[in-house]
Design brief:
Layout lengths: L4 E6 L4 H10 L5 E4 L9 H8 L4 E4 L3 H12 L7 E4 L11 E2 L8 H7 L2 E3 L3 H15 L10 E7 L4 H9 L6 E3 L9 H8 L6 E7 L5 E8 L9 H11 L6 E4 L5 H6 L13 E8 L4 E8 L3 H15 L4
Parallel strand pairs: 1-2, 1-3, 3-4, 4-6, 5-6, 7-9, 11-12
Antiparallel strand pairs: 7-10, 8-9, 10-13, 12-13
Length: 313
């Protein structure tokens, strides 16, 4: 009988950790291990457990994630494989970026790596919209990109969740208006941008869901591409993806009936949808990504990476 792969989720009680654990219970070939509550901050106990499992998932603050990686590195043969869901290692040397759909060879990079950084929720949508255009020469690397996005409040952590669930959260609010959001470095690097993008995030009074948008003036792009050319570039890039779908702008039922698109439609799924909206007469377009910030934007992405790293998909 083939031995199940053992997985320890460090921080399994948090929002992302709970989502990963729930998903992994439905994956054949994985045995979950846990640390005793009283030993969660016991470095010796954690090191011993990490030395006895195949893969560790880090759902921790950045500093704690770095400390835990150092513990793992001190184990024989470099310790277990690691998927880090924090921001700590997303642009670090020696870490594969856990967005298998990024390019033709990214899935193989994740599969063969022992250290994988799970993407942020906002960059997942933005990179999916921008990278194919840069790869195909439709957008120059130094293009002044603006990314606007809204997320459900579950992406804000325990404190924000408690405020909103108590009915005290704002209906809608911008934040990170100093333009120093921690997701910008990975957004820029993996989109292929040489120029720092302008990123404006916001949060709405709904639990889960996300819309990420990139507005474009078509006459500022090389060759003034058509809306169809933008759509085709995305469609070709993700043609073989199971989780990422490029849809016609009119294919959203809500859009067809109300002229609007909802952020919450993909709640509790691991899907990512991309669309190109625009006005050809005015030479303007807006690229839109829709995902669940806790699905493909967090826990779902982690499970996808775990399965690749353990040879289960």
């Amino acid at each position: 009988m083939t031995r199940s792969a053992t997985v320890f989720i460090d921080g399994e009680a948090g929002t992302t950790g709970l989502g990963i654990r729930q998903r992994l219970t439905n994956v054949a070939g994985i045995e979950l291990r846990s640390i005793a509550q009283e030993d969660r901050k016991n470095a010796d106990a954690k090191r011993a457990l990490m030395g006895d499992v195949d893969l560790v998932v880090l759902c921790l603050p950045d500093d704690a994630a770095r400390e835990t990686v150092s513990l793992a590195d001190s184990l024989p043969n470099g310790g277990p494989k690691i998927v880090d869901a924090s921001t700590a290692h997303r642009v670090a040397d020696g870490w594969a970026y856990g967005f298998p759909e990024l390019s033709n060879d990214q899935g193989a990079a994740v599969r063969t790596s022992s250290r994988v950084a799970n993407p942020g929720c906002y960059p997942t949508g933005a990179i999916a919209l921008i990278r194919p255009l840069i790869d195909r020469g439709l957008m120059p690397a130094d293009y002044p990109v603006t990314v606007n996005a809204v997320s459900g409040y579950s992406g804000g952590g325990k404190g924000m969740i408690e405020v909103h669930e108590a009915g005290n959260g704002a209906d809608f609010e911008y934040y990170a208006l100093g333009l120093e959001h921690k997701h910008i470095p990975e957004l820029q690097k993996y989109s292929g941008l040489s120029r720092r993008p302008l990123f404006v995030p916001s949060v709405g009074h709904f639990p889960q869901g996300m819309l990420v948008s990139v507005p474009l003036h078509l006459d500022t792009l090389p060759g003034t591409p058509s809306l169809d050319a933008l759509h085709d570039a995305l469609a070709e890039h993700f043609a073989d993806s199971e989780l990422v779908t490029v849809l016609d702008a009119a294919s959203d039922p809500d859009m067809a009936t109300t002229g609007r698109i909802s952020a919450e439609t993909l709640e509790n799924t691991d899907k990512l949808e991309l669309r190109v909206y625009g006005n050809a007469e005015h030479g303007q377009a807006v690229l839109v990504a829709r995902l669940d910030n806790l699905g493909k934007g967090a826990s779902g992405a982690a499970v996808q990476n775990i399965q690749l790293m353990l040879g289960l998909s």
